[in-house]
Structure formats: C-alpha cells, structure tokens
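S1.2 Input.
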Amino acid sequence: MNPQHGSTSQTGPSPGAIKLSADTFSCATNISVIVHWSTDPGFKGFLCQGRFDPQVFATIGGLSTRGDVPMTTTVEASLTQRNVDLKKSVEFVWTAPSFIADHNTSDCIVNCTSV
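S1.3 Output.
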C-alpha cells in the first residue's frame, strides 16, 4: 500500500487502531471491522485490504460497507471511501473466502492506511 496523496509519512506511533469482532474464522465467516482514530482532528481517507501477508500484494476475502460512510469497493478485497470529511471511525465487514477449509492453519489480516 503506497498512497500517492502527497503528504509526508508519520514517524511516530499510529493514532489509529483496528478492532475486529472475532480473531478466528471459518469459510465465509463475516467479521466486523472498525477503524478508529484516537486523536483529533480524525482522518479524511483510508484504504483497507484483506490479506494473507502484509508484505505481499494479494488480497483475500471480501469487504463490504456498514454504517453511514459512503464507500467504494475498488477491488474485491479492498475498500476506500469517497467522503473526505473528517471522521473518527468507520465500520465495515470482512468476509472470509469460501475456499479456506481450516481456520487454524490460515492467517489473514486487515491492512489499512489512512490520511
């Protein structure tokens, strides 16, 4: 994830956090994801993806919207928004792929970047 928004990258700890409704999954499980910003003024934009490995660009599963933030799915397992108003949190759903047979042997992450 390499944003091209022209701002410099932060060097300190992240002011944001990602909260999941579950930490294990099985085929086609829906997991609620909340991206929350702990400092003011909040964030304007974000890009989130479901992945097996944060260092490899290969998305997994599906992301869908929840709540009142207008969002656009850019790729099946990528989600971004089209509203540049400041916000403190957004919520969406990650759906595990149907081909994962054993959730004990498959790790997935939700990787996000924000501005």
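S1.4 Remarks. The chain has one domain: 17-114.
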